[in-house]
Specification:
Blueprint lengths: L1 H43 L12 E6 L6 E6 L18 E5 L18 E3 L7 E2 L12 E3 L7 E2 L12 E3 L21 E3 L25 E3 L18 E3 L18 E3 L7 E2 L1 H4 L7 E3 L8 E2 L12 E3 L8 E2 L21 E3 L13 H6 L2 E3 L5 E2 L18 E3 L23 H26 L3 H8 L22
Parallel strand pairs: 2-3, 3-4, 4-6, 5-7, 6-8, 8-9, 9-10, 10-11, 11-12, 12-14, 13-15, 14-16, 15-17, 16-18, 18-19, 20-21
Antiparallel strand pairs: 1-2
The protein binds 2-acetamido-2-deoxy-beta-D-glucopyranose (5 copies).
Protein name: LRRCT domain-containing protein
Keywords: Leucine-rich repeat, Membrane, Repeat, Signal, Transmembrane, Transmembrane helix
InterPro entries: Leu-rich_rpt, Leu-rich_rpt_typical-subtyp, LRR_dom_sf
């Protein structure tokens, strides 16, 4: 009984406290509104830009359940330089878009409410120490599409809440050690399209101080020939598109769920490439310029894989019958795999061994668009798949261009003789008929002994003439 009563008191108290905070929040809003109207105007509609198209767009958004104000300011495409901006941002500002301007440095802005700052598509070439230290609440910082090449140590000081950092399409190469160390809760880091990033030499985690708990890392087009990431870092997504990798790096975090290794220099996919990718659910091996073969067991270890794509790997012409492991062959104990979506769209594969049938039958999606399929008896099993693959026959000619599913089953036949045997048969037929014709002609010819002699008698103009050689010219005769 007593405990019930105390519970009631506690809950009553809680309600009261909640109400109080709500009231206080509202009071704060009411009181502040008058102060910041001028402040907002100063930023959104500056005197210098009156009646021009250069003023920013400011809009109210309600961001919190308390109905607190949050201001979103869009200053994109205004041709601003750093000197044009007032450095103290309005109260309640939540996001500021300064993309597509002509900023050649990052203005040292000040706000304790700004969550998102977009500086993409400017002309920033360097960051200085403490560049963002007055933006204490910043969560997302977009610096992509500039030409940032020089960063002072401490460029990211004072950003303990930053979760997303975009540095793509810049010129990062030599970076100060522990550059990213102040970013304690960084979750997403994008360094893609920094063509000289391979020269940085430093290890991302130990050298550059990237937050250990980073979950998404993008390193596309960084000229990487190799990469080592700590096996026990809890990274979830990694994109390594368009680098110079000849093998899938052997040492990658074990927790990876999504790996994009597209557009690299692998020629074959081997078992050791995927050996350590035990948790990967989405694997992209697309746009490979050199990949020709997927070898036996190359994909045998990725048990939890759900999505796999080889799309547009234009040289890929061989998929081993046991690429997904040998257990698929024994139909009695079909290995249950998680694979749901598989794409070979735009590759050069001509056929699939029927040992793959149990696997393909489980798929919810199988894309065979644009394959030069050899529709013979080896491939007739493909007609039975429950999903529409959009695969079309390329050979034999009489069903070229037809969907595998709509071509007649009996058109999927196999030549039991080799090609040269056909040639031989044709040749012997020709020879035989020539001989036949000769015999027939000979048979129909009038008999020499009977008719000819009668017509070509001695008195006939066709009579045989014997020309005697001149004895004088040939004295030896
Ligand atoms: C935002 O709303 C407040 C009142 O809630 C108003 O005073 C202010 O002018 C508005 N600002 C903009 C930019 O719409
Ligand atoms: C960008 O900055 C460079 C120097 O860092 C300068 O030469 C170039 O003119 C600038 N481009 C624009 C469009 O302002
Ligand atoms: C970085 O990549 C470039 C371009 O591929 C290459 O010339 C250079 O040698 C590489 N540098 C290092 C340190 O790997
Ligand atoms: C798998 O990872 C371990 C530990 O990093 C490494 O020693 C091994 O060489 C890797 N295996 C393959 C086949 O790459
Ligand atoms: C299909 O794979 C099995 C097992 O690897 C092999 O014995 C068979 O010859 C293959 N069939 C064709 C047509 O390649």
């Amino acid at each position: 009984m007593a405990s019930l009563k105390s519970l009631q008191i506690v809950s009553g108290l809680l309600t009261f406290v909640l109400l109080l905070t709500q009231l206080l929040a509202h009071a704060h809003v009411v009181q502040a509104e008058n102060i910041d109207a001028a402040d907002t105007d100063r930023f959104c509609y500056p005197e210098s830009s009156k009646n021009t198209r250069r003023s920013c767009e400011c809009s109210n958004v309600s961001a919190s359940p308390w109905g607190n104000r949050a201001l979103r300011i869009d200053c994109s495409y205004k041709d601003y330089r750093a000197a044009d901006l007032s450095l103290v941002l309005p109260l309640y500002i939540d996001s500021l878009d300064l993309s597509w301007n002509a900023l050649d440095s990052v203005p040292i802005l000040s706000s304790d409410s700004l969550h998102q700052l977009n500086l993409r598509h400017n002309n920033v070439s360097q960051l200085v120490a403490g560049n963002f230290k007055l933006l204490t609440s910043l969560r997302e910082l977009y610096l992509g599409w500039n030409s940032i090449g020089r960063l002072e140590a401490g460029s990211f000081d004072g950003l303990p809440h930053l979760q997303v950092l975009d540095l793509a399409h810049n010129n990062l190469h030599l970076l100060p050690g522990k550059l990213f160390a102040p970013l304690l809760v960084l979750g997403t880091l994008d360094i893609s399209w920094n063509r000289r990033f391979n020269e940085s030499g430093e290890d991302l985690y130990t050298g550059l101080g990237v937050n250990w708990k980073l979950s998404t890392l993008r390193l596309d087009a960084c000229s990487l020939g190799d990469l080592h990431l700590p096996v026990n870092a809890p990274l979830k997504e990694l994109s390594l598109r368009r680098n110079q990798l000849k093998r899938i790096p052997a040492q990658l975090p074990e927790t990876l769920l999504r790996l994009d290794i597209s557009d690299n220099l692998l020629e074959e996919l081997l078992p050791e490439d995927t050996f350590n990718l035990t948790q990967v659910r989405q694997l992209f091996i697309e746009d490979m310029p050199l990949l020709q073969r997927v070898m036996a067991n190359a994909l045998a270890h990725v048990d939890v894989l759900e999505t796999l794509s080889f799309q547009n790997s234009r040289q890929l012409s061989h998929l081993d019958a046991e690429a997904f492991g040998p257990t698929m062959t024994t139909s009695t104990s079909t290995k249950k795999t998680a694979l749901r979506s598989l794409s070979f769209r735009g590759t050069m594969l001509r056929t699939f061994n029927s040992t793959l049938a149990p696997l393909f039958t489980q798929l919810a999606e199988l894309d065979l668009n644009g394959l030069p399929l050899q529709c013979d008896c080896e491939l007739v099993w493909l007609k039975q798949l429950p999903v529409e693959t959009n695969g079309r026959c390329y050979k034999p000619n009489r069903i070229r261009g037809m969907l595998v599913t709509s071509a007649r089953g009996d058109a999927f036949s196999c030549d039991t003789w080799p090609r040269w045997a056909y040639g031989l048969v044709v040749l012997s037929l020709i020879a035989l008929s020539a001989a036949g014709i000769y015999l027939i002609v000979m048979g129909l010819r009038p008999h020499r002994g009977v008719t000819m002699r009668r017509k070509v008698g001695a008195g006939s103009p066709y009579a045989r003439v014997t020309i005697e050689p001149n004895r004088q010219e040939n004295p030896h005769y």
